[in-house]
Amino acid sequence: MGIHYDYKSKRGERAMLKEAKKKDRLALKKAKRAPTNIVEKKIEESFEMHDISKPITLDDLTNPNK
């Protein structure tokens, strides 16, 4: 009767351990995804539109530094 007597009394403890494991796994997934999101945001911020009031020249199209 020893094992069965102990089973229900530790139900809360097992649930807390299971939830902690789940939170750890989610945190690891978020940590893996975070760098890709930061890179995408930097690319979007660095992109500038061409001024539509100026004509587009060949230099604008071919210069890689602009």
Short description:
This protein is mainly alpha-helical and 66 residues long. Helices cover 71% and strands 0% of the residues.
Can you describe what's shown?
The protein contains three helices and no strands. The protein starts with a helix and ends with a helix. The chain has 66 residues and is mainly α. The chain has one domain (2-62). The protein has helices spanning 2-7, 11-46, 58-62. The radius of gyration is 28 Å and the shape is rod-shaped. The model has no long low-confidence stretch (mean pLDDT 81).
Shape: rod-shaped
Number of separate helices:
3
**Arithmetic mean pLDDT:** 81
Give the terminus-to-terminus CA distance: 78 Å
Tally of separate domains: 1
The radius of gyration is: 28 Å
The counted number of beta strands is 0
Classify the secondary structure makeup into a structural class.
mainly alpha
Work out the strand percent.
Answer: under 5%
| Largest sheet geometry | none
Helix fraction, binned, reads over 70%
Element order: H for helix, E for strand: HHH
Q: What are the segments in which pLDDT stays under 50 over at least 5 consecutive residues?
A: none
What features would you highlight for this structure?
66 residues, mainly alpha, 3 helices
Blueprint (SSEs and pairs):
Layout: H1 2-7, H2 11-46, H3 58-62
